[in-house]
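User: Can you predict the 3D structure for this chain?
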Amino acid sequence: DNALATLGMMRVLCEPWMEQWRPALRAGGAQGTSSQDRTQLAEIAADHARRLGTAPLSAGEPVLATGHQAWLWHPGILAKDVAMVVAAGRWRSSAVHLVVDQDTHPPLNLDVPVRRGPRLAVERLTLAAASDVIPTGCQPPVDPRNVLETLQDARRRLGAELRCDLGPLEQAWGDLPECRTLAQQIAVVLQRLMRPWTGPLAMVLASDLARLPAFERVLQRMLEDPAGCIRVYNQSVQQHRESGMTPLAIGPERVELPLWRLGMGQPRLRVFAVRGSGQQRWSLSDERRQPVPPEAIPSLAPKALLLTALFRGALCDLFIHGKGGGHYDHAMEDWWGGWTGQALAPMAVVSADVLLDFDAPLAERREVTRAVWWKHHLPHNLDRALHLTGSQVARKRELLDMLKADGDRGRRAAAFAEVHRINDGWAATHADALAQAAHRVELAQAGWANRAVAHRRDWCFALYPKYRMLELVRAFEPGVATAPDGNKT
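Assistant: Here is the predicted structure, written as C-alpha cells:
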C-alpha cells in the first residue's frame, strides 16, 4: 500500500510516505540528543571529507541518516540515499551516509549479466582478493590497479556477450585518495558512483562511533547492570524472530554485550562484561578473555541493534532503513524502550526493485509446455498444420478411417505403417517446419531459464543505464509519484 507509482521497470517502496517525515525534521532532535554528539559527528564527517573527498555535515540542522555495508550494492539500497537527499533538500536538513564497516561479507564480488545465444547467464567477477571473514573496516585497501585490470579483462574476454557497461566502475576506481581501510576505499567508490544521483554525501563509519559521548554513555549504562540490559535485549529478539537477530549469552560472571572488538587484519571478536569472584564492578573483555582497557574503547563497534539505537537515540532525527532493517529495528525499539525508557527518532523504510532491460527471449511455463507439445504433435500432423492437399492427404485419411473401423490386426498394422511412411515423406519435404518447431522449443526453454536472470534486482546500481537511474530519482521528486491515497505530492 505504500509503494510509489511505478515508473518503467521498477517498484519503489516508501513507508511512511515521505510527506510524513516532515514533523520529525521540524522537531530538530530526538530525546537523548546532545549538541556535543552532533558536533563530534560533524567533526568526524569533516575529517573524512578532507581526506576522502566526501561532503561535510552541518551540526546545526536536523539530520537524516541511512547506510549500508561496503560492497557494490543494488538500486534498492541507492533508493535510500536518493530519498534522504530529496527530503533533506525539501526541509533544509543535513544528510549522512553510515558505512557499516564492522560487518563481514564478500566485498569485491561483482555479478554481471551476459548473453550467450538465446540464453542469459551470470558471470561473477572477483575484482580483487579480499577476505569475507574479516570486517571490511579491518582490511587494508586493495591495489586499484588490480580492480581495473579485472574490469578491463572482463570487457575484452566477454566482448559482445556482456550486457552492461563497466565504464562507470572503471572511472570510479581510478585515481583514488589514500584510504586507511578497504571499507573506506569501497565507500569512496560508492560515493563517486552515487554522486550523479545524490550529489556529494557526508560519510561516517560504524567504527567511528566509539569516539562519541553517546557511545560512552550507553557503554557505562550497560556496565551498571549488564544482565538486566541483555535480558531485555534477548526478550525483544525472541519476540521479533523475523528480525534474524540472535540472543546474547548471559552468565553469572560473564555477559555478552552487543559489541564487537575490531583489530586490523583480525576477525572481529565478541565483547563481554566480566567480573571476578567477589567483585562488584564489571569490566570489559573479549571472547579470548583478553581485557579491553579504557584506552582500547575506540576499537569497539556496535552490533546491528545498538548501531541504529545510537543513531536514532542521539545522532539523527530520522533514520532510513531498507526492508531488512525495517524488520530488525522493531526488535531494537522494544529493547531500547524496555531498557532505557528513552524515545527514539522515527524511522522510515525505503527500497526499490529495479530491473535491467535484456534483448533476450522470456517465456512463461505454459509457453514451454505448449512448444514441447507442438514439437511432438507436428511430425504426425503436418497435413493439418500446413493445410496440405492432394492424393497423399486423401490416402492418409482413408487409412485413419480404416484403423478406426477394421479390427483385423494384420490390416491395421499395414495401415499404420503406411501412415508412418506418408508422414515421413512429408517430414522430408517440410523439414523447415519441423526445424521451426524445434527452434520454438529452444527459445521457450531459454526464455523460461532467462527469467531468473532477467528478474534479478540485485545487480550493482552502476551497471544500470542512466535513464533507469533517472527514473528512480524521479520517483521521489514532488509531483511525480502518487501517494497511497491517490494524491500527487
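The chain has a mean pLDDT of 91. Residues 165 and 200 are 23 Å apart (CA to CA).
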